[in-house]
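Hey, sorry to bother you again with one of my protein questions. I've been puzzling over a protein and I'd love to understand its fold better. Take your time with it, there's no hurry, and the full record follows here:
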Amino acid sequence: MAGDVKNVSVSRAEVLTVSEEILTAVGTPLDYARSVAESLVQAQEAGHASHGIIRLLEYTDSVQRSVIDPAVSPTIFRDEGATAIIDSHWGWGQVACKFAVDVVAKKAKELGIAIVSIKECNHIGRVGEYVEMLAAQNLISMMWCNADPAVAAYGGKDRLFGTNPLAVGIPSNDVPVVIDFATAASAEGKLRVARANGLSVPLGAVIDKDGVESTNPQDFYDGGALLPFGGHKGYCLSLMIELLGGALSGNHPSMNDGYSHGYGTVLLAIDPEKFFGGALFKDEISEATKKISATTPTKMGQPVLVPGDVENNQRKGNSPLLQISETIWNSVKELKLSL
């Protein structure tokens, strides 16, 4: 994104405390407030400001509009063999996803493979967080969700798909491989961050209401749309997530009549122990990632990265103090004072 952002350095403890206080002020039980706040801070640390504390502004508004029920707990709606449906009851998406991680991990370790979906689910934050949790339990995982229509179909200008993220977690003997990306050319939250900081976005991410490519993030909010990444290939991947996320969760694909709002979430886990053994599997992954990292780069000083390296490097840069946009941090502090 074009332009410069003025950052401030804030301790992790302060960011967590302010976030918890905002969440509890709108009726969130303390344990759930801590869980959601931790997810936001982890996203901020990993360099995903679009899913970090800027979301507190949206979340408090959603509570006040009764989109989010801040005190409700997720439950198991259906449980059959290797499958389950979690009912979030329109509570916190992060709380429901962590509950789903526990359910799918237990099933995968018993049966070798398991898949769960989440119904009536609000925004779930950074999808990579949950596959990281499963990789820490030596499980392979895939996760995706559909969402409010924001992305045009390839060749069209109408909003039809969500930004539809996909995440994959693969355990190894070292840090896990974590693949996590929106199938839109940009996550909507990144437009939100750019707009808050007065920045432009690259061509190829947004079209205005007339279908013309734009670098102004405001054009999206004035009736435009995001584009799928990678042309027709990204469009096909987004379509897969839209159909499977919407239909398997009961949330409906976002262009269908039954869709109202929310995130149709699906989480799949595989236990490599049930194949050739977990230790051998991790040996294979570690050998492969070491060789990838050792690849001769085309540009000196720019080593080849394995998915997850960027986030791990960002975490190092955000320790011991988090780097946060001054504009966004001021907005969060003003929000706290207003509640």
Remarks:
- The longest helix spans residues 93-111.
- DSSP finds eleven helices and 14 strands in the chain.
